[in-house]
Write a structure and sequence with these properties.
Organism: Sulfidibacter corallicola
Keywords: Activator, DNA-binding, Transcription, Transcription regulation
Number of domains: 2
CATH superfamily of the largest domain: Regulatory protein AraC
Radius of gyration: 19 Å
CATH architecture of the largest domain: Sandwich
CATH class of the largest domain: Mainly Beta
Structural class: alpha+beta
Oligomer: single chain
Protein name: AraC family transcriptional regulator
CATH topology of the largest domain: Jelly Rolls
Pfam families: AraC_binding (PF02311), HTH_18 (PF12833)
Number of strands: 13
Strand order of the largest sheet: 11-7-4-9-2-1-13
GO molecular function, one term: DNA-binding transcription factor activity
Largest sheet: 7 strands, antiparallel
Helix content: 40-55%
Number of helices: 9
């Protein structure tokens, strides 16, 4: 109580596939969710608890937070102390083209970590997003960070699956393809010959959420993409399967920490929670 919480979200039109965020949190809790992008963050002060892949990670001052596309996670400040951090979100297709590799980038198996090689490049990239500099300086900082990141990362293309994983991937791919549709767990289980209860547990274990919660997250990410394009919020709510604009706004803010209106193109809104 008393300490102001905020999220400040923006996109620089000169840099393709990059979005920035500065956050100051005290009591806000992010539920389990995932992004279609890579998330690369740096804690500036305080401590945050990040939960992902069945483990709890403590992010302290100077710690990086790294999230792959589709990686389910949740988080909140530790013991309601002020937690400040900066995040950069990268479009996977742009990262792939810039680094010149195909597949998912990993930094070991780490979610929260320290890496001296990345610090100067990250700080410089975030700096050029905050202050007026030339386009050439922005592009140089962007390219330098991606280069250092690529040198530190390993590559995975997830090309081999066992029979159980194949069935779960079929279900996930079906949800991704029919994200705006309606289907029951029985229908999903029938497509791959699994018991519905077994499917729910196995899917949660593999992807971090049960099938229908996973579908909601896909819908939220679709809504995010539509809002970035400047589409009307009420229409986005309808297109993405929410009851109405209020339903989208409540669900969206709970997940992302800010309302859908913040995502309007060229928006640089300081959003108080």
């Amino acid at each position: 109580m008393g300490a102001l919480e905020y999220n400040h979200i923006w996109k620089d039109e000169d840099l393709e596939g990059l979005e920035a965020r500065r956050s100051r949190l005290v009591s806000h809790i992010f539920p389990k969710h995932f992004h279609d992008t890579y998330g690369f963050g740096l804690t500036g002060s305080g401590h945050g608890l990040v939960f992902s892949r069945g483990a709890k990670h403590i992010a302290s001052c100077g710690d990086f937070i790294f999230l792959r596309p589709g990686q389910v996670h949740s988080g909140h400040p530790q013991d309601q102390e002020t937690w400040e951090y900066a995040m950069l979100y990268f479009d996977p297709s742009v990262v792939e083209a810039q680094i010149g590799v195909k597949g998912t980038l990993h930094l070991g198996n780490q979610t929260v970590f320290r890496e001296k090689r990345l610090m100067p490049a990250f700080m410089r990239l975030f700096e050029v997003l905050l202050y007026p500099v030339t386009v050439a300086e922005k592009e140089s900082a962007y390219r330098d960070f991606l280069t250092v990141w690529g040198q530190a990362a390993s590559i995975s293309n997830e090309s081999s699956y066992n029979r159980r994983e194949v069935k779960l991937k079929i279900v996930r791919d079906y949800i991704m393809a029919h994200w705006d549709g309606e289907f029951s767990v029985d229908e999903l289980a029938g497509k791959v010959g699994l018991n519905p209860r077994y499917l729910i547990g196995s899917f949660r274990q593999a992807y971090g959420l049960p099938p229908h919660q996973y579908q909601i997250q896909v819908r939220l990410n679709k809504a995010l993409a539509m809002l970035r394009e400047g589409k009307d919020i009420a229409q986005v709510a309808t297109d993405c399967g929410f009851y109405d604009q209020s339903h989208l706004t409540r669900t969206f803010k709970k997940c992302h920490g800010f309302t859908p209106g913040v995502m309007r193109p060229k928006s640089r809104i300081r959003c108080n929670l």
